[in-house]
Structure formats: structure tokens, C-alpha cells
Write a structure and sequence with these properties.
alpha+beta; three-stranded antiparallel sheet; 2 helices; 3 strands; rod-shaped
Amino acid sequence: MVWPWVLLFAVIALGGLGVLVLVALRVWRSARGLLAELDVAAGRAGELADLLAQVQVPQVQVTGATEVTDRTLPDAGSELTADDAWPGTVESYDHRGADAPGKKES
């Protein structure tokens, strides 16, 4: 009478082992795909680092109360201020004064 129980548990154990192998294969394939994606991301990060190394930021010299960049006009030869070099810049102060709506006095 013991023989059918041994056979039943052996079949269950083999089924569990098969499922374990399938899960391990799926995890291995997923890990391999993840490592491939990380390799691509590392390559892109290297390309980004190369591009950022090529960016040249203009030198800004502070002279008194105004900032002067190292850019010059091709025909005039005079230096431009930081605001003149970038059209469309916004003034940094509120030209309406302390009586502007919503402005708190400090």
C-alpha cells in the first residue's frame, strides 16, 4: 500500500523540479535582457558625456555692477553685456514699484 504514495510524491517532486527549471530559465532570460539594456544605457551615457564635454560655456567676467561676456560684435569690437547677448531677456526688477497689486512690502 505504500508504493502508490511514493509514486505520487515522486511525480509531484518531478513536476515541481520542472516548474523550478522553467522559472529559472525565465529569470535568466530576463536578467540577460536587463543586462543588455543596461549596456545600451551605459553606451548612451558615454555618448552624453562626450557631447557634454564638447559644450563650451562663455566666460563671464564681473566688472563692477555689470557682467560682461567675452563675446564681441564682429563690426564694432565692443563687449556685450549679458542681457544684450541674449535677446528677449526679462528685467530682474519690478518696474511698477511698491504699489503694484499683490506686492508685499518688506
